[in-house]
Amino acid sequence: MALLDKVKIFIARRRLTSLNIKGDGNALEQWIHGKVRQEFERSREFRQALGREQLGEITRHELREYQLHRFRRQMAYVMENSYYYQKKFKDLNLRPEDIRTYDDLEKVPLTDPADLAAEPLTFLCVSQSKVMRAFTTSGTSGTRKRLFYTQDDVLNIVDAISAALRSVGMSGADTLQIMFPAVSAWDPGLMLDSACKVAGLRSTVCSSVDVDEQIRTMMEKDTKVMIGLTSFLYRITVLARDRYDLRSLGMKAIICSAEPLPEAMRREMRSAWGCKILSQYGMIEMGLATAIECEAADGLHMDEADYLAEVIDPETGKHMPDRTPGELIFTSLAMQGTPLLRYRTRDLSSLIEPPCQCDFVTIGKMGKVQGRMDAQTKIGYGQKIYPVLFDEALLSIPGVLGYRLVLEREGYRDKLTFQVELKGDPAGKAEMIREAIMQLDEIKEPLENDLISEPEIEIVKAGSVAFAPKSKVIEDRRKNYEGTERPKAP
Question: Which domain holds residue 394?
Answer without folding.
Answer: 376-476
